[in-house]
Each structure stands twice: as structure tokens, then as C-alpha cells.
């Protein structure tokens, strides 16, 4: 799954959704509307609770380190809050935090499967469904490209980090 | 395959019911999925105009609490606070209550019985408690504890003919029509996220959104322009902005000449406001003030949003009148996109309801802390939920409460107030019983339906007050009736809601979104569709339209003269009062991912880690040797508490922030609730939003921390500069 962030604060437009498989799943997040409420995180915990009725930790979308160096990985939705060794890097203004630690932490959390049970019904994942500010969009690359073009009418830049599956 | 944003559950369920969330006044529509009578999942109602399918984390957390084992299920009583509670049946519990009440009244009269309330209490509690207090002749009634500036005694009522508790001129659905939105001392993104959605929608369509606050809140971070001022100087900034607008001639002369009076008095009172001095006091640049004033002057229609549930108790008469003056000067009243839009409004005037029930007691605004310390021992106090959450004044009011003859708590979950209660009565809550939602951020009435089966020992507040009244043989005591009949009676009796009824509100039988009030005639029950408004919920969208009269009045503005009466700005500025011993200021506010409505503090936080509960600036934390998660002690002469620290850069260096609702029952929190560290308000005055404190790492030397803070803050002006308000006589 590709993850794309859009914001007027980003100067460049990087994501090329026309390249690659038009049916590949893409998650797009509008950072300018995100209010760091955590509904996506709670939705993720609710969607697949642990068997004893306890809420599970949220799942992680894992990323390659950024091109050209820097060891970045991004937790979605905010699993770093559940990390046993959190740093002070999380800020409410940067809800979609880039964690500067290395991928040792990737072993801590289950990988996001975009809510496979919901996808099978043709529904968006829980985080996109529940977001109160309607800032998460999920779809085929071709559909997301359409929405992205609409947002670019209001001069949004975008940022895409390379993704990989969890080990 | 195209994926749909479907508010549906993948879990097995045998039914779906629509109801309204009761966690905050946003009033979001819910779809509750049940299996064998138990709730299995909750999603938003995509047809509901408030949330259009989303649910915020506070509502989700509150819904999850239904299945938690902490729900109170049986009444509990004890003779003295030193004893343990014993579980009893309802008959014995109510016998105990009425027996003690009779004893208290035989010794000190019904004035020794105090019925406490808050605006956030359920409608069924507030209404039944108000009538009980009226018929008993109780010393205090619930509405007396509401914020004084928003009541009928407030100067905003004098200015507009409507009190702030009932004033929202344009509902959120209209806000996209604004050209400018000013959010004043409010963080709707945290207090009621769904109410912030229309603000973002407006912003994305080109509306200018500005915020005045002392923290860079999330609402401020998403606005176009944020004026982050020194703590306590928010009203100063508003005065300066108004002065700059008047200087610029940003006045709609037609509206002002036809519909207002006393502009000269306002002008004279503003003449002593010097924007340069204000900028220095607020610790902003004059350019920032000028820039915001330019926007306010040029953006019409303009609206001001204020008074969310977390911040409304801090608003003073002056600030409300200043905000109203801002929109009145530009003629932004009675037009789409304009208005003074206060949140958490309700159509009910409980003072009038009590009076109609025969209440002859004077009912001035009261502060619970002042009431407690002035009450003699042995009196009776009855309350819903946790009134201690906002109790100020240190330990003294708590000690006074411990000397009461009877304390009755009605609640659906455990809370700190249990420590002072002789009787705890378990209530159903909003998923478990029918009820009216009258307090709203969107000026709407809605009806909640029962969708889950309550534990057998829980009762609705109506039934409890009815039975207590019957046992005390109060004249006119209500038959319990059902919640629908009760609501219909009160809706029909209130001049702003005469045309509303439960039948018209039922979400299973009517278009979603409830009914906007005032609704006084049949046409107010329809979707408004005119050249002004294409409504998506029923009722009148814009108040004070030029050709209209306000409900219950025959004038556009229900003042004696039919015009808006500008109020002179009077109150001198009072600094926070930090000093060498207490160099920091503490404030309390809403956080988006926690709720205390159910009782316990619920947040989306991992159970195995300490909760971050006190926000502190990174440099301040470094100065006193505190890192994220370390326990921080915050103290002043009134008391102290300690909790894990959260490093947050949204604060200025000299400010600490706590979420509301903290007390010793919250894991990892020790000591007095943060509210206790604040001073009692002066009679009839709003609560103080800030209190001077010191802070240090728990267990470390407080003196060393104070010295480090002094060095840190010495690089900045110590406290805001006293504001030089020239008296009008000095002016040419």
C-alpha cells in the first residue's frame, strides 16, 4: 500500500500515481485538515480487538528509509505512542510522526492490512471511515489520482514515502 | 474496485439503531449495531448533517465504556464518610435520602438543601432537579451554578436582549458562508471536533479563520492566523482589535444607525486603548495585531465563535460584549455567515421554569466553592456526576463538604465525588434511555433513543426525582411519566420551543439533524429553503433576520428599545499574578482524545504506560530537569498535585496545561485536582482561567527549580505589563 501525504506546506509534488499499477491501493492523508484527534488510531484498535475484549495496539504501516539517506519510518496511526521507549518526537502538530529510530521497532506492532475484512466488502479501512475531519482517503491509485488532482487545484504539495510489508 | 466510506461493521449484528451521541454538545448522529441486545459496534450516521458519518474519539471512548465493568449498578449508602458503602435496594436508598433530607430541613429549613447542577448535565436531571428545588424551596437550584456572564444577569443580555446561554445566531451548517471566522479563547478542535469540521470546510473555501488564545492549540494550528497572546491578555487583544477597527472606519453605517444605540459610549470606552501598549502587554508584535484587525475589518460577513464547554466558564461580561460588538459594527448579524455564535447553547431558561413552578427564592449566580465555605455544617447537597472537577479554592471547600449532613450523588460511573457522598444512585446513560438533547453546538434539539439495555439497577433521573418528591409529599410533585411526555411538557412550556415535540424529533421517524430552535410555528418544523438558506436540517437557520422577530418578542432584537445596546468596555485588566515563588501559570482545558463524561478518565492511551497529564514547554522542562514521562509536581499555596509530564511546544514557556477532569482516580495522578489550585471567583464573576504555580520534578528540591525558572523567564518580561487604561476624562 502506498501512502501519500498532501499539504500546502509541501512545496513539491512527488507522488506519481500514474506510474505503476492503477489498481494498487493508495492511502492519502490531508495533513492540513488533521486535528490529531486520534480517531484513526482508536478505530484501528477497535477494528481488531484482542480476544479478551481488550483493545489491541494500533497497527503500523512501515516504510523504507527515505531516498538519499536518513533513517525514517512512519507510524500509522501513531503506534509510537504505544512504543515502550518513546522519544519526545511526537507533537500534536505532527500527528503522522516520522520516527527517527531504526526499524528495530518494526517488530513491535502488527502490520496494517488496510482492514482486509472491510476491503473485501468494498469498504474503506477503519481509519479512513472514522476520520472526523474527512482527511483520509483510500482507493485505487487511479481513483486517488483523481482526488489528488482536485486538491492540487488549491495548490497542495504532496509527499510519498516508500512502503514495504512488515517482516 | 472503488471503495466506499461505509459506516458499517464487519462484526455480526442483528440490528442497527440510530441515536444521538451524548458525550458533548456537538450532537453527532450514531448508528449503533447490536447483537442480542448488546452493542457490538458504533459508527456515525452518514445522513446526519453534523458529523456526516464520522465519530470523534471522545464519543467512541464513551461508547466503549458501556461494556466496562465500572458501570454503577446498585445504590450505595453509608451513614458517615468514614464508613464503607453498603449496597442496598432502591427503596432503602431513597428512604435514607428522604429521611436525612427531612432531618436537615427540620433543623435548618429547606434553604439548607442545595441542588447542584452544570450545563453539561443531562436534560432529565437538570429539568427534574430544577423543579424539585423550586417546589422544595431549596437554598440552591442547579441553574444558579451556570456561568454568570452567560445568564440573564450578564451584560450580553442587556446588549442583545438574549442571554449568552441561548445565543447562537448562525448554526455551524451556515458557517461556510462566512468570509471571516474569529475563534475566541476556544479550542473547538479539542472540545467538540465535529463542530470544527465546518470551520475547516469554510477555510478550504477561502474563508479567513483567526484564533485568539494563549496556547497554540490545534484549532490555532489549523487556522489562517493565530494571535497567541500572553496568558490573561486575551480580552485586551480583543479590545485593541475593536479599537483598530473603529479607527479604520470598519463600520456598517446603515446597520449601526438603524439597529444599534450607544456607539458613542463604546467609542469613548475604547479611546483609552492604545494598540501599541496592548501589543506589549500581550507579547505580540503591533504588526500582528494590525494584521488581524485588517482581516476583521475587511472580511464580511464576519462571525465570532466562542464558549465551548471547556472555556465558557472563563468568559467575562466584557469579552462577550466585545465579541458581539465586533459583529454588530460590521453589520454581520442576520445575514448568512455572520453572527456571534456561542457554543453549548440551550433554549431553556431554567430560572423561568422554576418561577413558573412557584419558586419565589431569589436565584443569583452561585459558585459551589463559595457556597460550601459559607454553608454551616449539616446541610444537604445533591449533584450529578462530578461537581468537584471545577471546584476551586484549595482544601477548604472540600473540608466544608465533608461536614455536610447529606451528600447525594447521581451518576452512571464512579468518580471522585464518591469520596464525599453518603448516597450514590446509579443512573442510566444516553445509550440506555430515551432523552432530550437540548444543549447543542448547533442550536438544535434532538432526541436520543434507548438502544442498549441498562443494568437492572439503574434508573433515569426523572424517576428518582419523582420518587423523592413523592416521599417528601411535595405539592405538584411530578408523576414519573415517561421521558417523552416530560420533554413534551417542557418543550411546550418554553417560549422558544412551543412547536417542538418528541414526535417531531424522533431520529427514526424524521430527517436527521433534529430541529433548530426557536421553533414556535409549524413552518419552523420544515427544511428551510429560501434565497438565503438551503437548509439541510429543519428549522430557522439564521436569527435576527431583518424581517423577523425573536421568539417570544415582537421585535427583531428583544431589548426594550428594539435595538442592540453597545456596552462600554469597563473592566480593568488584571494580570495572572505570577511572582518569584510562583513563576509559572497553570491552565486547564479540553483535550481531544480523552473524556470524563462517563465518570472515569478515558483516553486512547496504552494501559501499560504512564499517561502524559501535564503539558510543559520543552525549555521549561529542561530548566527543571524533567523529561517526557517524568513525574512533575505543580504547587501553590492552595495545594499541589503530581502527574507525568508531556513535553509540548504549543505552550509559551511560562504556562502549564492540564486536561480537565483530572483527580486522584485517574491512574498516575496524585494530589488535589488541578482546579483546586485556582482561586475562588469573586461573586458573580467568571472562573479564573489561570493561576500562579511553581513546578519541579517530583521529589527534587523546589527551591532549585524556582531559581532555574527565574533564570529561564528572566530573559522574558516577567508577567504581562499592567495595561494603562486612561480614564475617559483625560481625553481631548
Set down the secondary structure blueprint:
The complex is a heterodimer of chains A (167) and B (732).
Chain A: E1 2-7, E2 25-30, H1 39-47, E3 62-63, E4 73-74, E5 98-99, H2 116-120, H3 126-130, E6 136-140, H4 141-152, E7 157-161, E8 163-164
Chain B: E1 15-20, E2 29-35, E3 38-44, H1 57-64, E4 76-77, E5 86-87, H2 90-108, E6 113-115, H3 123-136, H4 155-160, E7 180-184, H5 188-191, H6 193-204, E8 208-213, H7 218-222, E9 225-228, H8 234-247, H9 253-259, E10 260-261, H10 263-271, H11 275-282, H12 286-298, E11 302-306, H13 317-329, E12 339-342, H14 350-356, H15 368-374, E13 380-384, H16 396-402, E14 406-411, E15 423-426, E16 435-437, E17 444-448, H17 461-471, H18 483-493, H19 502-505, E18 515-516, E19 527-529, E20 534-538, E21 564-565, E22 584-589, E23 594-595, E24 602-603, E25 614-616, H20 618-623, E26 631-636, E27 639-647, E28 655-659, E29 670-671, E30 691-697, H21 702-714
Parallel strand pairs in B: 6-13, 7-8, 7-11, 8-9, 10-21, 11-12, 13-14, 14-15, 22-28, 25-27
Antiparallel strand pairs in B: 1-2, 2-3, 4-5, 4-15, 16-17, 17-18, 19-20, 22-30, 23-24, 26-27, 26-30, 27-29
Structure explained in plain terms:
Chain A is built from 4 helices and 8 strands, in the order ββαβββααβαββ. Chain A is α+β, with helices and mostly antiparallel strands and 167 residues long. In chain A, 43% of the residues are buried. Chain B has 4 domains: 53 residues, ADC-like domains (N-terminal domain of TfIIb), CATH 2.20.25; 221 residues, Rossmann fold (3-Layer(aba) Sandwich); 177 residues, Dimethylsulfoxide Reductase, domain 2, CATH 3.40.228.10; 131 residues, Barwin-like endoglucanases (Beta Barrel). Chain B is 27% helix and 18% strand. The C terminus of chain B is likely disordered. The interface between A and B is large, with 47 and 52 residues.
